[in-house]
Each structure stands twice: as structure tokens, then as C-alpha cells.
Amino acid sequence: MAYNIVTIVGSIRKQSFSLKIANALAKLAPASLKLDVTTLEGISFFNQDLEAAPPADWLAFREKLQKSNGVLFVTPEYNRSIPGVLKNAIDVASRPYGKSSFIGKPIGIIGNSPGPLGGVSAVKHLQNILPGISGPILGQPEAYLNGVGDAFDDNGELTKESLKGVLQQYLGAFAAFIEKQNG
């Protein structure tokens, strides 16, 4: 049986490195994981006034998460934090109060950047935001992918062998974590 993992892409840019990394992860995933690469451009802004009759896009996103066996975040870093679109999606999925769609879902987090720091501040912010509204977060190995600007060809295919190895190592640890949490 393959575990269904919602793989949330933290950027909505069409050629984002996060999307390319998420797609590479889906191709590299072991047979025990099925990564459902999920972008966030269709999720409307969270507004508590809408909770009585939530928009269809909120309900669909929440249901997708609820049916999953885990969640993997792949995010860039914007201004030393996560992108606003990702925070909005987390806010939508964590509601209504006490009924977060992330509850009980094992979580993985991969930060990335074309620069030298690999999105470490964004990952740390997710590690601060998620406890209390999610299941356990994979602590080791941590994944801060730097220098990703030259890791893909013109078709978005991963060509940087060193990055491929890092992704495979992370996926192996994440697969074991998912199996343990869902076992």
C-alpha cells in the first residue's frame, strides 16, 4: 500500500523552484509514498466571517488533507519567513477552531533557495506555526536546499546529481516516519 502524501508547494510562481522540487520528489519517491503535488493558487483568502458557509475551495483543500496519510511542505523563503500564500493555506486548513485538517498528519518540511541559506528561516517559521494544529513533524534529517537555481533543465527536470541524492535521503527518512506514524 502506498501512503498518500499531500505535497504543498509554498510558491505560486509557474516556474518556482519549490514546484520543480516537489515534482522531482514525486518522481523519486519510494513505492510506499504517493506524492500529490498541490499548488495553492486556487485557495481564497481566509476570512473568519466566511466560516459559517466556507467557500468550496476551502472545503476541497481541507478534505484533501483529511484524506491524506501525511503532508510534505516544500517552500521558498520570502523576507525571512514563509510566503503569504502558504500562511493563508495553513490558516484555511487549520479551521474551524479545534478541527484542523492537519491534526494527526505527520509533517515533513523542505526549504529551498537559489541563495546560500536554503530557506532555513521559512522552515523554522513552519516549525513554530504547525505544533498545536498538526501531527508530529519529522525532525531529522532537516532539509535546507541551497543553490537550487541551476538544479533543473529547461523542462524542469532535476539535473543536479548532488541534489537528487539529498532528496532521496530525505524521502527515505520521511517514508520511514510516515510508516511509523500510520502503522
Question: Topology of this structure?
Answer:
Elements: E1 3-9, H1 17-28, E2 33-38, H2 56-66, E3 70-75, H3 84-93, E4 107-112, H4 120-129, E5 143-145, H5 161-182
Parallel strand pairs: 1-2, 1-3, 3-4, 4-5
Commentary on this structure:
36% of the residues lie in helices and 15% in strands. A five-stranded parallel beta sheet has the order 2-1-3-4-5, sandwiched between helices. The mean pLDDT is 96. The protein is built from five helices and five strands. It is globular. Strand 1, helix 1 and strand 2 form a beta-alpha-beta unit. The termini are close together. It has one domain: Flavodoxin domain (Rossmann fold), CATH 3.40.50. With 183 residues, it is of the alpha/beta class.
CATH architecture: 3-Layer(aba) Sandwich
The multimeric state of the shown protein is single chain
Number of strands: 5
Strand order of the largest sheet: 2-1-3-4-5
Averaged pLDDT, please?
Answer: 96
- Text of the CATH class: Alpha Beta
Q: Low-confidence runs (pLDDT<50, min 5 residues)? A: none
Rg to the nearest angstrom?
Answer: 16 Å
Quick recap of the structure?
The chain is an alpha/beta fold and 183 residues long. The chain has helices at residues 17-28, 56-66, 84-93, 120-129, 161-182, and strands at 3-9, 33-38, 70-75, 107-112, 143-145.
Quick tags:
183 residues, alpha/beta, Rossmann fold, five-stranded parallel beta sheet, 5 helices, 5 strands, globular, Chromate reductase, FMN binding, NAD(P)H-dep_reductase, oxidoreductase activity
